[in-house]
From TrEMBL:
The keyword Membrane does not apply. This is Response regulator. PROSITE patterns: RESPONSE_REGULATORY (PS50110). Keywords: Phosphoprotein.
Length: 125
């Protein structure tokens, strides 16, 4: 069975790119454009990985990561944060919120897939 990845990204081009690349690698993908829908979609889709944009309209990706890590159904799902925020201290804040890994935009496909595979294929704790 294909590993499932939830892609939370409000930018249409980025979301399509992430989804197309992941699908081409054999993953089942569920795109989410509105962060307000992300946690409900995660509970229904039960992904093996959540790719989370940090700068979303209506809600912060940091808040969504914290909420996911506080939820008994979602807390074990690894989170890859993807953000245009790449300033000093940003990675630390993102990891403190509960992200397992972090990539700064613009994202190159090679490092993106290395990060995805590292999180999806890692053994369960």
């Amino acid at each position: 069975m294909a590993k499932r990845i939830l892609v939370v990204e409000d930018n249409d081009l980025n979301r399509k790119l992430f989804c197309d690349v992941l699908k081409s690698q054999g993953y089942a993908v569920e795109p989410v454009s509105d962060g307000l829908d992300a946690l409900d979609k995660a509970k229904n889709f039960v992904p093996n990985l959540i790719i989370m944009d940090i700068q979303l309209p209506n809600v912060s990706g940091l808040d969504l990561i914290e909420a996911a890590k506080a939820d008994p159904l979602l807390r074990m799902i690894p989170v890859l944060a993807v953000t245009a925020y790449a300033g000093k201290g940003d990675e630390e804040r993102i990891r403190e919120a509960g992200a397992d890994s972090y990539l700064a935009k613009p994202v190159s496909i090679g490092p993106f897939m290395v990060a995805v595979k590292g999180l999806v294929e890692r053994p369960a704790l």
